[in-house]
Amino acid sequence: MNKVLTGAAVALATTLLIAACGPSSPTGSAAAGQGRSSGPPQASTGPTAGLHAGHAGPFTAPPPQPLRESERFVDLKPPRSYTPAAPSGGTDEYRCFLLDPGLTRSAFLTGNQFLPQNTAIVHHAIIFQIGPDSVQAAHDLDARTPGEGWTCFGDAGVEGGAWVGHWAPGADETLFSQKIGYAMPAGSRVIMQVHYNLLATGGKPGQSDRSGMRLRLADGKDGFTPLQTGQLVAPIELPCATGESGPLCDREAAVSDLSHRFGRQAEETLGMLAEYCSDGVPPAPGPTQRCDRPTPAAGTIYGVAGHMHLLGRSIKIELNPGKPGGRTLLDIPVYDFDEQAIRPLPKPVAVAAGDTFRVTCTHDAGLRTMLPALRGLPPRYVVWGEGTSDEMCLGLLMWSPAGRS
C-alpha cells in the first residue's frame, strides 16, 4: 500500500518480520469467529476475476453497524477539497491530511470506515495515529506545505506514525467481538494518507477529492487488549511478458525510473528487501516471490489481509509452513484488487517467538495489456514500488503482542 514501503523499510532495516506499530511502538479487529465486515469475505472466482478495474464505481458508504457499549462515532474530513498532482513526472501522489478527533481522554479505536469521496482517483488509504509529542511537527509540516496536507510517499511523513486503519477497494469496517482495539492516547491526532492514482491524466491535476473517515471509539478505561498492525513483505521481480519490449524492460532502467518518481529511498528499499528475505542475495526474476521471517515476539493474531496492485494474481500467508502444526492464515488464489476486505480468522491464532511467517505472491505481467488502467503504458520490468503501475506483496496481520496492556 504505501507507508508500506517506508514502513517496510523500517521493518527491513531492523530485520523484524513484523513491523509493529502502535502509540508507543503502531487497524483491524477480529473475533473468535465473530468478526463482521461489510466487505466481501472471499475473492471472486468467476471468469473475470483478476481482471480488476483498479477502481470501483461511484461509492456510497453503507450504513454503519450499531454502536456497542461505551462506543461513539467521530466523523472527520479535511476542511477543503484537494486536487492532487503527481510529482517528478509520475502518475501517483500520496497525500497526508492531519485530523483532530478531539480526544480529551484515552480511548480505543475499535473500528473505522474510510469514506472515499472520489473513487475515480482514490487508490487506497491508510490511517495513522500520532501521539501528542508529534502533533506540533505535523502542524509545522502542514503549515509549510501549500494546499491541504502534505505529500508523503512511504509513511505519514511524521515520526511516530502508527498504522491503525486502512482502506482499499472492497474493504469496509470490520468489527470483532473481543474487547480489542488500537490505543488512542488523550491529545493524539490521526493522519489520513490517501494514495491518488492519476494515470488517467498522466499525473497532471484534474479531479478533486475530499475523502473522510468515521472512527469508532470506545472508552479506554478498562478491559481492552491493544492491537498492532504487522506487515509481511516479499520482493517483486517481474520481467516484461513474452512479446513485450521497450527500454523499461531493462531492470536497471526500470529501477532508475522508479527512483526518479519516488526518490532514492524507493531504490534503497529493493536492496533492503533482498537483505531482509534472502540474506542480500537478489531474488531470481519470476512471477512468484516469497519471504520467510521469524516473528520477534509471541502474540495473538485476530485478522489478516493481503495487498497487491493491478498485476496481482494470488497471495498467501502461512504460519510455520512445512512444519507440524503449520497452517494457512490467508489464501486468495484469485486476487481481485477490488476486493481487499480484512478477513477475521475463525479463531484467534497464538504465535510463539521464533515462529515463521511466509508471505507468497504471484503477479502476471500479461495483465498489463488486459486492464484499461494499464493498457496504454509502456512495458516495464516491475519491482516493489508505490505507484499504481508498480507492484507490492504485502500481508497484513491484526495482532496483539504478548505482554501489552
From TrEMBL:
GO molecular function: monooxygenase activity
Signal peptide segment: 1-19
Region Disordered, residue ranges: 24-88
InterPro entries: Cu2_ascorb_mOase-like_C (IPR014784), Cu2_ascorb_mOase_N_sf (IPR036939), Cu2_monoox_C (IPR024548), DBH-like (IPR000945), PHM/PNGase_F_dom_sf (IPR008977)
Oxidoreductase found in the keyword field: yes
Gene3D superfamilies the UniProt entry points to: 2.60.120.230, Copper type II, ascorbate-dependent monooxygenase, N-terminal domain
Bias (Basic and acidic residues) ranges: 68-78
Presence of the UniProt keyword ATP-binding in the record: no
The protein's name: Monooxygenase
